[in-house]
């Protein structure tokens, strides 16, 4: 069995790949301006400047759209933590450092644009949003922050980071795109299409660097892949009241277990040929087999979710029926 490479060796081995993918990214990316996607003519002053403070009746977005937009924005707000994580694991030298800073600059646009849109259109309570932003950023984020001992240290490795971000960027792209559709509002949809396009290019970078990692050190990469998928959480899980919001978003079809499996996990595993490769040995080979078991478990989760979702929708429909009946009687 080949000896594991050190983090420094991996950084050195992968730097030419990072440089090539950075250059490709710079050719493919399209710069855009957040202010171009904000309906400024809809804006008006708040109370502090002699205007009117927010009222729930001013929002034109559904509960699902509001919840998803806020969740997406609060996830983007933790950018300082994400920058710190990848800077520590990728380094700020050479092509790695150029990518870290470029990625951070592009990601920063997303939070700017989403917050401006939500505030100008009065789609959500701006006071509550600011309170949530402060709370979310105070909590910070690290993929291993809820783990202890050796497991936490493992979660801060180069491979753990680049593989985790591959899935996370793709999941974020899907979530933003589906949120745009859920808004049923053309400006929001256009804005989130633009954000999703950024996330897609970021995903491609991390996916292809990870793929090169599997060729350089397959067993090490498999350790990280197994660890990431067995413990996967979206960065937004630190948002206050996350569980309730995740249910609203899932039932609303923005991001649910089926989307996670079919549109995020399986496409990446297929691209990396995880179940076709024959270069995993020992414990890494066992972990690859366990990923097959995990796929079956995720499929079961999808089926259970669909059943629970259907029951929830039926209950909500009956409750709406009763409310409408009461209104008819009172009229």
UniProtKB/TrEMBL annotation:
Its cofactor is Fe(2+); Fe cation. Binds 2 iron ions per subunit. One of its GO terms (molecular function) is metal ion binding. InterPro entries: Fatty_acid_desaturase-2, Ferritin-like_SF, RNR-like. This is Acyl-ACP desaturase. Keywords: Coiled coil, Fatty acid biosynthesis, Fatty acid metabolism, Iron, Lipid biosynthesis, Lipid metabolism, Metal-binding, Oxidoreductase. GO terms for biological process: fatty acid biosynthetic process. Pfam families: FA_desaturase_2. Belongs to the fatty acid desaturase type 2 family. Signal peptide: none annotated. SUPFAM superfamilies: Ferritin-like. One of its GO terms (cellular component) is cytosol. Fe cation 2 binds at residues 107, 169, 199, 202. Homodimer. The keyword Transferase does not apply. Residues 288-315 form a coiled coil. Fe cation 1 binds at residues 76, 107, 110, 199.
């Amino acid at each position: 069995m080949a000896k594991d490479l050190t983090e420094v060796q991996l950084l050195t081995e992968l730097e030419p790949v990072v440089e090539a993918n950075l250059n490709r990214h710079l050719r493919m990316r399209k710069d855009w301006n957040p202010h171009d996607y904000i309906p400024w003519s809809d804006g008006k002053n708040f109370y502090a400047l002699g205007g009117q403070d927010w009222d729930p009746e001013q929002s034109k977005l559904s509960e699902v759209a509001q919840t998803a937009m806020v969740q997406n924005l609060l996830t983007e707000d933790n950018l300082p933590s994400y920058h710190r994580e990848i800077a520590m694991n990728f380094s700020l030298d050479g092509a790695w450092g150029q990518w870290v800073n470029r990625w951070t600059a592009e990601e920063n646009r997303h939070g700017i644009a989403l917050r401006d849109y939500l505030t100008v259109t009065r789609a959500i309570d701006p006071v509550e949003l600011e309170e949530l932003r402060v709370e979310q950023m105070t909590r910070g984020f690290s993929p291993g922050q809820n783990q202890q001992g050796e497991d936490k240290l493992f979660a801060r490795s180069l491979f753990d980071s680049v593989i985790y971000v591959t899935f996370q960027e793709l999941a974020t792209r899907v979530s933003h795109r589906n949120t745009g559709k859920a808004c049923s509002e053309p400006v929001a949809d256009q804005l989130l299409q633009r954000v999703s396009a950024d996330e897609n290019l970021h995903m491609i970078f991390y996916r292809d660097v990870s793929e090169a990692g599997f060729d350089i050190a397959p067993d090490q990469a498999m350790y990280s892949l197994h660890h990431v998928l067995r413990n996967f959480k979206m960065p937004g899980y630190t948002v206050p009241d996350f569980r309730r919001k995740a249910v609203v978003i899932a039932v609303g079809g923005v991001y649910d277990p089926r989307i996670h499996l079919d549109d995020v996990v399986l496409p990446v595993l297929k691209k990396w040929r995880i179940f076709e490769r024959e270069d995993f040995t020992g414990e890494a080979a066992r972990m690859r087999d366990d990923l097959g078991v995990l796929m079956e478990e995720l499929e079961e989760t999808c089926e259970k979710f669909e059943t629970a979702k259907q029951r929830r929708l039926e209950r909500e429909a009956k409750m709406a029926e009763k409310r409408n009946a009461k209104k008819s009687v009172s009229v």
